[in-house]
Amino acid sequence: MASVSERLKLLRKEHKLSQKDVSQILGISESGYGYYEQGRNEPSIDMINKLADRYNVTADYLLGRSDSPDKKEKEDAFDPMDEINRLLKEYGIEHSGFFDIESWKAMGPDEVKQLESYFKFITEEAKRRGKDKQD
C-alpha cells in the first residue's frame, strides 16, 4: 500500500492542484504542505479529514490503510464503534453522566440488578464469541 505522502501527491496531481493550492485550502504554509508530500511531517487528524473531504476519499485511503478511495464502500461497511457512538448519541448517554460515578452511587437496588443483568449478558457474549473463534 502507498504511504500518506505518496497518496497526497497522487491525489493533488489527479485534481490538478499545486502544492500552493492545497496549502491554501488547508490554511497552512506551502512548505508545511510540501513536507507532507516529502514524508518529512505527518498531517494531523484534522488535516487528514480536510484532505479526505476535499478529495472525496476515505481517511483510511489517505493513511494507506485501504486501497479503495471509495467513500460509498466505507459507508456500507459495518463499523461497531460508529454504531456504538450512534447509540450513545441516540439515547443521550454521552451527555447523561452515564460514566459519572456519583450517578452510579445514586442507583437503587432494582437499577443495580438491571446493570448486573446487562454486565452478565455482555461478558457471556464475549466468552461465547471467544469460544466461537477458537473452534
Automatic annotation (TrEMBL):
<dbReference type="InterPro" id="IPR010982">
    <property type="entry name" value="Lambda_DNA-bd_dom_sf"/>
</dbReference>
<feature type="domain" description="HTH cro/C1-type">
    <location>
        <begin position="8"/>
        <end position="62"/>
    </location>
</feature>
<protein>
    <recommendedName>
        <fullName>HTH cro/C1-type domain-containing protein</fullName>
    </recommendedName>
</protein>
<keyword id="KW-0238">DNA-binding</keyword>
<dbReference type="Pfam" id="PF01381">
    <property type="entry name" value="HTH_3"/>
</dbReference>
<dbReference type="InterPro" id="IPR001387">
    <property type="entry name" value="Cro/C1-type_HTH"/>
</dbReference>
